[in-house]
Amino acid sequence: MLVAGDVAWCDDLRAAEETASILDRIPGTILALGDLAYMRGTAEQFRDCYTPTWGRHKARTRPVPGNHEYLTAGAGPYYDYFGDLAGASGDGYYSFTASNWQVIALNSNIPMERGSPQYIWLQRELQRPSKCTLAYWHHPRFTSGPNGDNVNTSPLWELLHAAGADVVLAGHDHVYERYLPMNPDGQLDRDRGIRQFISGGGGAILYKFAAIKPNSASRYEGYGVLKLVLGDGRYDWEYVPVTPGFSDTGFDVCH
Q: Which end of the chain is more exposed for a tag (fewer CB within 10 A), N or C?
């Protein structure tokens, strides 16, 4: 899997083209983590900015929406552009299987609290037996980036942690950051914790880190794509930067 969000900065598409060139040479499903066509996710911005870059891999992309998509009413152009690849229009959450992993796409722009339709749907999805589980959405629960933690995603983390999920992916802060496995309170939990990756260097203007959070294990302020290899009871990660020099690789086993 190839993972990044915050992609097509319409005022300057050079970085989005550089990350798209990484996609050109590596096979696999693409998880697009939202904020894909700046600044408002309009039909014209998807056509003129996303399509010439990451859009050439649309057929193998499984996206989630970001907050910029929702600057246009109901993120309508996003749902129109991706169609069935994005799940039910207006919901934006769905699941699929990859390499015997349960992969769950969630929407951090709509209600996530206990009792919300998305929360109830996730509860049901997590009742399906699966050795390994990965979830992804736009706003990170924990981040050392300037946007700060997104506490409203906590109900999702609580459900995923209770079910033994392994990996959560997010964008929103335009950086790369990898965390050690944590519980929903952000405490180190090597036995049943979720490892969170932020991969927001898809092409939009980059951010600088702010206060470094506990359990932040690797950070990079540059463009690139996270490569995940989902195996039988394990996963391997490698950050593929546009500019050589930074490296973050490793592996872990599922709970």
A: C
